[in-house]
Amino acid sequence: MGTIGTDLVVEYENQRYLHNEVDALGVVLGLAAEHAPAGSQRLHVITRKAGLVVFETSVSVPSYRAWLRDAGESAAVQATLGFGRLPGYDAANVQWAYDNAQSATRLRVRLSPLLSYTVGAEVGLFDYSLGLQARASAPLWAGAELYADVVQRIDNTINMEPDRPFANLRLRNGLQTLALQQSFWWGPRFFASVGAGLYQYNTVGAEGEATVFVPWNADSVHLRGRVVHHTDSNPVLGADNAGSASYRWRMTPTTWVEGGLNSYTDGSKGPSLAVTRWFGDTALQMFARKGGGNTFVGLELSLPLTPRQGIGAGLAQLSGNPRYVLPVRTLLTSATDKANSQRPGAVRPIDLSYKSEVELLNSGRDTPDYISTQLPRLRESFYQFGLALMQ
Hints:
Strand order of the largest sheet: 7-8-9-10-11-12-13-14-15-16-17-18-19
Distance between the termini: 20 Å
CATH topology of the largest domain: Porin
Strand content: over 45%
Number of domains: 2
CATH architecture of the largest domain: Beta Barrel
Order of helices and strands: EEHEEHHEEEEEEEEEEEEEEEHHH
Helix content: 10-25%
């Protein structure tokens, strides 16, 4: 916390409210507005992830405090609301009251279910392999994390046993990932995250993701890639080299259309189109992907599997998955390919182990128009979670 003239500056990093960064922002905005020194005119709140600044939210202190207390018309607050990728003030001029605060958390453990399945196959109505993934991560320096994924299989149907039809879909036990991830800004509109290490049990290599925020609106360009080398002759399905480039058109703050070109894990290449609609913290996506002679269409459900308010700061912290994805797809038949058969390895897009958009950019919900629509939730999160911190 600090001041610059009559403005109050607050920087924070959220590891507790994993459904949506708006919840953490609401707590910070509310506490800062209520405790702002007399005469404060504007509040600048800097959101950090992995020690990096990811965006700044600013608002008039008197307007926000009045709206927070009487829940009146929000138009006056919206008129003073500001948003930017990087701080809109000169950090060298800030008079810090509390500086260089360090997180007490040194180890974060996240649990997530894993499900590999087939539906309506020639040999079974529904076959599955169910497991649990534990991710342990430790912050190192600004933008850097060391993380490891360990998988324990819980159950599977007989058709996913070794030497059975879907043996390649059976989850494997053991160390799935051990990697070092570094994220960084390259200018105000280019955000990148790259990692190197062991992936998918038996490959070593590198993964990377870059987000380019276009200057003319809230749209963005997304680049993803992976280059790996298999260390044995038993590769995991989908663990091959792959890449994609896409453009995301934000029709509204909660509706996206994304078109791209892909190099899939089976070696095929082709276009893709996806429409995503957010319902609160749950997203539903319709997609179509073409690779070589195969075209798949399907649905993807994305939802948080962790409490809205998780465990507070401590030496170790346990949470659930902030963004669990469950897809279902089917092969689009044609005059030359009339059999809607199971092709588990065909036209699989790149699936990064570390998804920087989820981990650092609020699952893509980090645009000015989105934040401006979340004023009711900002107020709600303050009264639900932040008010207790004032008592």
